[in-house]
């Protein structure tokens, strides 16, 4: 039996993975962005060990999530599943970064900095990182602002940036298997109704990462649905680009990603 934390686990991949892991007798902690959603998901999945509440568009709330998770103890597996896709440009109050970009990139950075290091740390990426702009300039939209913001390109960029971050973390965290996962394009709230992949294929990979049912000496590796190792864009291995993302996150959060 393993102890698992899954962020963004009130619906979609996160909830279904949590449901299967509870059924497999693991100790699963969920995460919700509000107490109302926490109450709803606890009713849906009463076998969960607990639900942590934090709005991952806030530095302070994300830090609080890490503090509360650390009070529970060291997790065998942490899956950073929370993410945003469509929506207007909505500045986060404490940074000015669009909410989507904050949730997809900065919140995982904060948690990687502050959580006690688990055995397995999984960042949720997307095959759409292949559609991203690879110049890693103004990744937080502080220069371009609302006028230049388009949600779909911004999402694609954020998934490239989180993969670069994951690989930077992998180089630093000895003894932790750090991976990126493309869960598939499925008809979740995020994926929309036109999606063509199967939820269960992506969840199969989540469960594998949670249980450690793979070669845990692998780190900095990109997985796809059905437990398959994928081939990401080559630039995700560029250490200079990785460090650009790390430095941008460090500058905006004042948190350092320790070696």
UniProtKB/TrEMBL annotation:
The keyword Zinc does not apply. Keywords: NADP, Oxidoreductase. InterPro entries: NAD(P)-bd_dom_sf, SDR_fam. It comes from the Eukaryota. Pfam families: adh_short. GO terms for molecular function: oxidoreductase activity. PANTHER family: CHAIN DEHYDROGENASE, PUTATIVE (AFU_ORTHOLOGUE AFUA_4G00440)-RELATED, RETINOL DEHYDROGENASE. Belongs to the short-chain dehydrogenases/reductases (SDR) family. This is Short chain dehydrogenase. It comes from Penicillium nordicum.
């Amino acid at each position: 039996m393993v102890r698992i934390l899954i962020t963004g686990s009130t619906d979609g991949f996160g909830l279904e993975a949590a449901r299967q892991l509870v059924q497999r007798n693991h100790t699963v902690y969920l995460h919700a962005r509000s107490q109302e959603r926490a109450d709803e998901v606890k009713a849906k999945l009463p076998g969960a060990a607990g639900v942590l509440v934090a709005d991952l568009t806030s530095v302070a709330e994300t830090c609080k999530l890490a503090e509360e998770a650390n009070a529970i103890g060291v997790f065998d597996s942490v899956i950073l599943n929370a993410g945003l896709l469509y929506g207007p440009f909505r500045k986060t109050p404490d940074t000015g970064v669009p909410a989507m970009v904050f949730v997809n990139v900065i919140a995982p950075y904060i948690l990687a900095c502050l959580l006690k290091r688990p055995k397995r740390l999984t960042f949720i990426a997307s095959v759409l990182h292949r559609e991203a702009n690879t110049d890693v300039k103004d990744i937080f939209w502080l220069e371009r602002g609302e006028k230049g913001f388009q949600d779909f390109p911004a999402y694609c960029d954020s998934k490239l940036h989180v993969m670069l971050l994951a690989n930077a973390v992998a180089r630093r965290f000895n003894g932790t298997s750090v991976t990126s996962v493309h869960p598939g394009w499925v008809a979740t709230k995020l994926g929309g109704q036109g999606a063509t992949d199967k939820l269960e294929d992506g969840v199969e990979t989540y469960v594998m990462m949670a249980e450690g049912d793979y070669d845990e000496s692998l780190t900095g590796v990109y997985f796809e649905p059905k437990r398959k190792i994928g081939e990401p864009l080559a630039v995700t291995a560029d250490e200079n680009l990785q460090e650009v993302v790390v430095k941008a996150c460090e500058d905006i959060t004042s948190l350092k990603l320790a070696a």
